[in-house]
Task: structure prediction
Amino acid sequence: MRSKFLPICLIFTLLATVACSTQAAAEPTDVPSEAATAAPVEERTLTVMAAASLTESFTELGLIFESQHEGVTVAFNFAGSQALAEQLAQGADVDVFASASNKYMTAAIDAGRVTADASSVFAYNRLVVIYPKDNPGGIAELKDLAKEGLKVDLADASVPVGQYALDFLDKASADANFGSQFKEDVLNNVVSYEENVKAVVTKISLGEADAGIVYVTDITADAAELVGTLEIPDELNTIATYPIAPIADSKNADLAQAFVAFVLSSEGQAILAKYNFVSVLSN
Result:
């Protein structure tokens, strides 16, 4: 007689099949992974035009800004402020402009590239005389810049630091300690006028001239190994003013505003102070 009961082994097989089917039905088959649902990061480039004297400090600021804004690359164009202002007037595609002089920020405003009330002063700088480390011109005091036969290298007068150097010579010539001929005698010693302040530092570092006038911020750790310095007293010095502004027609207006805000922040100001700029927060 055939048994009315299923074999034990068949019962276990049926139970296992039902369990597997139930588990499979309970598990969703098309659950997207977190990576698949995350929105892709938008890659953007923020272009910043900045005075040559800002090369080291702004390079560091740019790296920090990139680390704080995923997908953002900061591209710099460092040159003399006058050259940058000219590029802006010609329609250069840029997001932020940082100048070493109010003169060229005004030029950018006049050209319609910067809104009049968008500019902010973010740092100050001052002049210093430099000479090759071995001091071939025997420079011991400022009066020595007028020594006959000395080779002096300056930035062109169209460059902010070049005009500031001329202002120093005017002040010194009005000082009885230097004499009215001082400016003329120094200018007679000029062997070259450069397009930006970094070119002056390079020529003095290479010994191609006996002395030059640059910003104190240009005496980087590398430059300090190659040049000596001679201070210019406050009464003869010129305090350079550095303004910054987002470009009015920037394609990255939000990032431009964020970068300007970062430069003006306590963190940004601390970076500038590290490179010997005078912070606006200290005034």
Notes: Residues 127-231 form a domain with the D-Maltodextrin-Binding Protein; domain 2 fold (CATH 3.40.190.10).
